[in-house]
Structure formats: C-alpha cells, structure tokens
Write a structure and sequence with these properties.
The complex is a heterodimer of chains A (161) and B (88).
Chain A lengths: L1 E7 L5 H9 L7 E8 L3 E2 L2 E10 L3 H16 L2 E9 L1 E3 L4 E9 L2 H18 L2 E7 L2 E4 L19 H5 L1
Parallel strand pairs in A: 1-5
Antiparallel strand pairs in A: 2-7, 3-4, 4-6, 4-8, 5-7, 8-9
Chain B lengths: L4 E6 L1 H7 L3 E5 L7 H8 L4 H6 L7 E4 L2 E3 L10 E5 L6
Parallel strand pairs in B: 1-5
Antiparallel strand pairs in B: 1-2, 3-4, 3-5
The chains are: A alpha+beta (161), B alpha+beta (88).
C-alpha cells in the first residue's frame, strides 16, 4: 500500500495531495480526506497564532505505527498523513489525513481511527497566542487520557458491515 | 560496573520548566524504571521539581516509543519526557 507521511512547516493543499495519491488509478472506490484547521478563537478569546512543537524522529515513527495499525485493520489502497509544526495562524491547515479504499466504510473508519490516534498518541503539543499571552493547550480529559489505557477504537469495521 | 549514559529530551512545558531541551546523564545506580528516574530528576533542583511535581501526568518515551512509568530503562539511549499530547 502507498503510504506517505510528512511533517512540515509549510502549508499544504489537500486537493493536490489527493491527486498525487489517487491519480492514474482505477482500483479506488472511495477517498476520504480530513483536514484539521487552526480556529480563530480559544476559550472565547481571539487567537493570534498557534505554535506546534513536536518530537522529531519519534513523531514520524509514531504516525507510521498508526498507519500500519490502520492497514492491518482495513483493506486500504493508500494513506497520506501530513502534520505541520511551527507557528500557524487562524484559517491555516494543521493536519491532513487521506485514506483510499475500495469501499467508503473502510476509508471513513480508517481516517477516523488515524485522527483519534494522532490526537492522543502522536508527540505534538500546541501552544496558543491570545491577547492574554501564550499558553499550552491542555489535553482534553487530561486525567483520563492515558496512552497506556488507550483501548482500540470500537470495531467499526464490523459495525459498518 | 558499566556506567550507562543516556540522553534525556524534554518537550513543551516540561522543557520550559527545566530550561533546556535535552541533556546527557549517567544513570545513577539503583535507578531502574522511568518512575525512579522521574523521582531522581525531581531532586536535582527547583526547575526539575517543578517539571515533575505531578509525575502522574508526565508521559515518557523510551527510544522514541511510548512507555509506562513502571517500565525498566534497560539499555535505552534516549528517554523523552513531555505532557499529554495535543496534536491533530
């Protein structure tokens, strides 16, 4: 399966990435793309910018492990994951997940699975800048989210059938 | 006895509190798990005590793989400490 994983400072274009991954193929029945965007507001205050820090070396490896896990779980025909780091401003894209499959259920499920993993396991940290200063974003349900106890997502494959 | 040297890397507010992104240390005798190491580090000064004041929320990676606090360090080359992740 074709898998592309990129960490980059630069912006990306989802359309161009889809074309690159799927162009010239006639085995694909479904393409799902998810793009995460930097919102212009944080806790009710206008957001000036967001800075993403990452663990170089580990971030790529961790995403690759997630992609492998997704491949084992669903019959995928291609995956692209792009995650940006550095300073970004509202309206800019943060993360891109593209999944290709013969059928939509597999493409949808794998994209959601990858995003759930990226949120809780990929070593990235967001810091936001507002008029009040800069602050690290707190993990949601920080007390409960534990990498150790992260159970695999419910069996969506079975549910989708 | 062989002295184990290991690279420690800190990220996000753990890095800010400690005041450096990484350092090389010799693993003291008797420090065998990630939890032991966090306990030992937190005694090295105020900045470390501040970073590790709530060790339950600190995440660790052994040679770039997520691990639990009770994991044995073994012959690891690199240990990362960081807050819960907020990517995606």
């Amino acid at each position: 399966m074709a898998a592309t994983i990129r960490l980059q400072r630069e912006r990306f274009e989802a359309g161009r990435e889809v074309a690159q991954l799927s162009g010239g193929r006639n085995d694909i029945g479904a393409i799902v793309t998810f793009t995460g965007i930097c919102r212009g507001e944080e806790a009710g205050r206008p957001l000036i910018a967001m800075t993403l820090e990452h663990y170089p070396g580990m971030a790529e490896a961790e995403i690759a492990r997630h992609v492998e896990a997704a491949e084992k779980r669903w019959p995928l025909l291609g995956v692209t994951v792009i995650h940006r780091f550095g300073r970004l401003t509202p309206g800019e894209e943060i993360v891109l997940v593209i999944t290709l499959a013969r059928h939509r259920q597999d493409a949808f499920a794998a994209a959601e699975f990858l995003m759930d993993y990226l949120k809780t396991r990929a070593p990235f940290w967001k810091r936001v800048e507002t008029a009040a200063g800069t602050d690290w974003v707190e993990a949601k349900d920080a007390d409960n989210i534990s990498a150790d106890r992260w159970a695999p997502a419910p069996n969506r494959q079975a549910a989708a059938k | 006895m062989r002295i184990e040297s290991v690279k420690l890397r800190y990220f996000a507010w753990v890095r800010e509190r400690i005041g450096k992104p990484e350092e090389e240390i010799e693993l003291p005798a008797g420090i065998t798990t990630i939890a032991d190491l966090m306990g030992w580090l937190s005694q090295r000064g105020e900045e470390y005590a501040h970073a590790f004041e709530n060790p339950k929320i600190i995440r660790a990676a052994l040679d770039r793989m997520h691990v639990k606090a009770e994991t044995a360090i073994g012959g690891a080359h690199e240990i990362g400490f960081f807050p819960p992740m907020t990517g995606g």
